Amino acid sequence: MDKASVGQQAAKIEQHPERRFKAAFEAYQERELPNVKIDHPGLRLQQYKDLLYKQFQKSPENPYNQVTVSYDASQEAKVEALKGKKAEIEQRLREK
Known about the structure:
mainly alpha, 2 domains, 4 helices
């Protein structure tokens, strides 16, 4: 594996998911609120927000559901984390 591909793969890893969680959730909420209002009419706004939060916990857009490593991880550790996550997904999809 050459240096360029290692750098590109390492760039996909989230090192500080806690910094992006609020913004990612608000973007998800803004996009999905009209759909939830159609699917579940008659709820209060807070009930819609609670429902969206539960959905966001399982969403791949959630930064905590993405591959994470510590901020001082080496390039090799980042690549190994990506390979492990990819293998885990492949295994899960094979079982279905």
